């Protein structure tokens, strides 16, 4: 870790020292861009799904069959060339409604960058290098993985007790994706090499992976670092893309979450076949590879990743916990595969996502282990391009979210542990 810090510091020092030693030919001029995407979403969910369990023990079930979902950002970006040949720039993206986490910070990405013969250096809030170089299954409507309505549980709701692939202590991953998103957009430094024979490498260091816009010093030990590699070239009429990545998040309890990713795409005559994989494993100094999470008096503890009071009540009711302690493991794996075809203004695709992750570890109480939590999503998508930057989109599919406790549950709790359903949506995507 110390070597990584020294290398990162040296790169930053060289890069920014070069900036100070040369003036810019022109000052940076900011350009405005971005995108606006709106969906009309319809979903037919399992009638047995009871939503969430409140602290008082009652259930909630209030989901619209039709809803409006959006994802909108305004980009402010600019760059300039220095007299010594280096390029420097800035990028800031503003959340513009339709898809917000209701925090006080409306800024999504914000970073500065320096680029030259040595490669590219980025400093600020953005996705890590393993994420940026990752190759995944294609989707015609760009409505998949961490950019999808269904894979985020915005169409068919994911029960709180069903663990997703990217969840860890202090961060509950909403998106179902093979990408590494555990650090989200915490402040970080990343370096990317120049492309050589189609091959690019990247590295990231994150001082505090649990927060964004953290002005304190040393407030957390949830550091993270990772590496990524990507390969892209054409061999005759065949296009080839491939990626590999590793990311480690050091958790505040002394554990570490290791994530390994890989992906590939092959394209020929309008067809693109692709897929990706992630393996997530924790490393701790105790036998059994599990950690103990205390719920507290009412089951409300910040680092409980499966629904605070709901998880405490369910684990106690099912005889797999005492309502206070709960054994938890961060390990899991997931993959996706998809086929896409594009001709003229039309693009169509079909993709499948699957993940299996460990939830409650019942053997902590001398009981038999349950099955893994599983998520399965099938989706067909289409796009019609009216003109550059103006696309009509559509997706239909089926999603199934199931807790490993489902088969052990009494009837009264089955509605909390599983949900599935069909969905359809159509929308408009504008890029400017």
Structural topology:
Elements: H1 2-20, E1 31-45, E2 66-81, E3 87-95, E4 107-116, E5 119-125, H2 129-132, E6 187-192, E7 199-206, E8 224-235, E9 238-250, E10 256-268, E11 271-283, E12 291-294, H3 309-317, E13 325-328, E14 332-343, E15 346-357, E16 373-387, E17 390-402, H4 411-417, E18 418-431
Antiparallel strand pairs: 1-2, 1-18, 2-3, 3-4, 4-5, 5-6, 6-7, 7-8, 8-9, 9-10, 10-11, 11-14, 12-13, 14-15, 15-16, 16-17, 17-18
Word description of this protein:
- The chain is mainly beta.
- The chain has a single domain (33-69, 128-431), classed as Porin (Beta Barrel).
- Helices cover 9% and strands 45% of the residues.
- The protein is built from four helices and 18 strands.
- It has helices at residues 2-20, 129-132, 309-317, 411-417, and strands spanning 31-45, 66-81, 87-95, 107-116, 119-125, 187-192, 199-206, 224-235, 238-250, 256-268, 271-283, 291-294, 325-328, 332-343, 346-357, 373-387, 390-402, 418-431.
- Strands 1-2-3-4-5-6-7-8-9-10-11-14-15-16-17-18 form a 16-stranded antiparallel beta barrel. Strands 12-13 form a two-stranded antiparallel ribbon.
- A hairpin with a 5-residue loop joins strand 2 and strand 3 (87-95).
